[in-house]
Every structure is written in structure tokens, then in C-alpha cells.
Amino acid sequence: MSTTVSPAPSSPGRPVPGLSRLAQGLLPVLYQHRLVATGQLHRLFTPNAPRPVYLRQQLKELRTAGLVDATTRRTSRLGRAELLWYITARGADAVAHDPTIPRRGYRISPQAAASQLQEHTLAVVDTGVAFVEWARRLGHECSPLDWEPEVAHRIRDGDSRGIDDAFMVPDAVLRYTHTTASGRRRMLSFFIEVDRATMQTTRLAAKLTAYARYQQYVPHGGGRGRRSIREAWRDHYPAFPRLLIVLTGASDRSLGNRVQDLRALAAADSRVGQLAAGVTTLQLLQETGPFAPVVTPLSGDPTPTDVFLAPSGGAPTS
After folding, report:
1. Which of 70, 161, 177, 182 has its CA 20 to 30 A from that of 26?
2. Sequence-ordered list of residues with C-beta below 8 angstroms from that of 208, at least 6 positions apart, any chain
3. 3-state SS record for 129-188
4. pLDDT in tens, 79-107
5. CA–CA gap between residue 288 and residue 107 (Å, rounded)
6. Could you report the per-residue pLDDT of 153-172, keeping only the tens digit for each?
7. In this structure, how many other beta carbons lie within 10 angstroms of the beta carbon of residue 133?
């Protein structure tokens, strides 16, 4: 039986001897995304195979080699135990030799893999998978390594002991290259914030404020306390990323109320109102796609639109 494997962007630059091409691709994805379900890996790597037989075989070989391990999902939606995969210390060391893969200071432990944070981690992966799948359908570019979880962005000067106050940490930074019918390419960047309807409104308000602070943050320069002449984000992004809040984990009615709460929070803070920000649901993102009118802006007209994710706001790449 033939199996279609996703292209090479997810394959490490320095192959581990003895591993198949698919296994080589799985390692950096598990390293970067911490915890990924078998079904999610199937959608990313072998979407044309009716069943992930070959994928499971490769995961088993990686596990036998001590490069990855698995835990059981605490709440299975399939009516049976679902395996969640993560890279081991040995596997992470193997990936760390590849200069093309961003270094991750965090190493997931078996205890963390089995913790109550599973569902949030998997929801972030589901969001990235939705972008990959729609890029595949539309002829755009978004690979399994084009979103990076929990990238810290400093939002004030001084020491970092109060990380909640010193840094803004989105659930993921996602990059997506949109290509028009005429061949014009635009690179889009997104701050992804996943809300499973478990976050308190006050915490949501603090997170929105942190994004607004990062947009305006100008750090002090290197000498004599002089201030830099531009915002910190310009050192990392060609344009300030759009904030996409993805809701899941509750009924449609509850999620609809959540949208209204988010718009009220944005209206209460003029700095948040300046963000290019919108909210959608994971279900809409998966079923309809990011370029359909599924995003409700946080400010202004509440009509769901595709303008928020349209390529006109991105940075041209060609």
C-alpha cells in the first residue's frame, strides 16, 4: 500500500541514521509541538492514507529506539484510548543538532505529558493543523513547523522575575504564505491565542492588554539608559502579527457569549482597540477555513469577515 508523506520542510537537516523519511520528519515536529495525537500526525504527514498504519509503524520504531514516547489521552473522544506522542530527552538531543530547528528550552516530561494541560496543548496543535490543511487545499504554504508554541516577547524593561508582567507569551506564533492566482505571495504572521472557555474574564483582559503593550513597547537602548528609536517587535516581524483568538471546548451558545465578552474587553481598553485582532472558533476554522468570513473583529463592526485574515495586510515576499 502506498503512503503519501508530507513534503520535506518538517524533515531535519541532519538525518538520524537508520530512520525512514517519515520518521525523520516526525522528530522535529514532536520536539517543537511537545504533545501530538496520532490522528493529528496522520492529518499532517499521511493525509491520503485511509488509515495511519505506516505512521503507527514508524512511531513504534521511534519509541523502540528511545527517541519518542507516548501517553494516553485523559479524555478520549474516539471511544477508545488515544495515544499522544512526545519526544524523549534522547530524541530532543538528536534534533538539537539540526541548525534549522529553533531551540526549545522546555523539555516535556512524562508527568507533564499526562497532565491536565493535554487538551489545551492539543487544541493549539489542532489550530496549526487546520492552517496546514487549508494551505494544502488552496495552494498556499504552511508546514507542520510553521507555528511555534509559547514564544516569549518582552513587554517591559528591567528584571524578568515577574514573567507574567515582563513578557507576552502567545500560545503560538504562526506563519502562513498566501499565493494569489497571479502568483503574488504574501507572508502572514499571527499570534494565536486558544481559549477553551476555561479562562477567567480578568485573565483574558490581562492577555489582551499584554498584546497591546507589546505593540507599543520601545525598549531602552544599550547605553546610558537611552531609549531605542523603534518598537521591539520590528526586530522580529516585518509587520505586527495579527491576533487570532480561537475558541473551543464549549457549546455554540457559550462560545458566542465569549465573543461578546472579548469585544467588551476590547472596548474597555483603547490600546486593545488598536490591535488587528479577531476571534473565531476552532470548528469554523477547521470546516470553513481561515479565508472564509469566520472571524469576528474585536473592535468595530461585529460582522464576521474574511478581511482580518485577507492577504492585503501581510508583508509581500515577492
Report:
1. 177
2. 262, 265, 266, 269, 272, 275, 277, 298
3. HHHHHHHHHHCCECCCCCEEECCCEECCCCCCCCHHHHEECCCEEEEEEEECCCCCEEEE
4. 677 899 999 999 999 998 888 888 887 78
5. 34
6. 999 886 655 556 789 999 99
7. 17
Quote the distance between the C-alpha of residue 207 and its chain's center. 16
Say if strands 242-247 and 185-195 run parallel, antiparallel, or are unpaired.
Answer: parallel
Query: How far apart are alpha carbons 112 and 104 in whole angstroms?
Result: 16
100-116 burial, b for 16+ CB within 10 Å, e for fewer?
A: ebeebeeebeeebbbee
Please tell me the distance from the alpha carbon of residue 2 to that of residue 17, in angstroms, as a whole number: 23
Backbone angles phi, psi at 129, to 5 degrees: -60, -40
Which grid coordinates are listed for 57?
Answer: 509503524
Q: Which of 254, 260, 122, 264 is nearest to 194 (CA)?
A: 122
Q: Which cell numbers hold the place of 227?
A: 531609549
The position carrying cell 496549526 is: 128
Set of cell numbers at residue 283 = 470548528
Cell of 177: 504564505
- Here the cell at position 73 is 489521552
φ, ψ for residue 204, nearest 5 deg: -60, -45
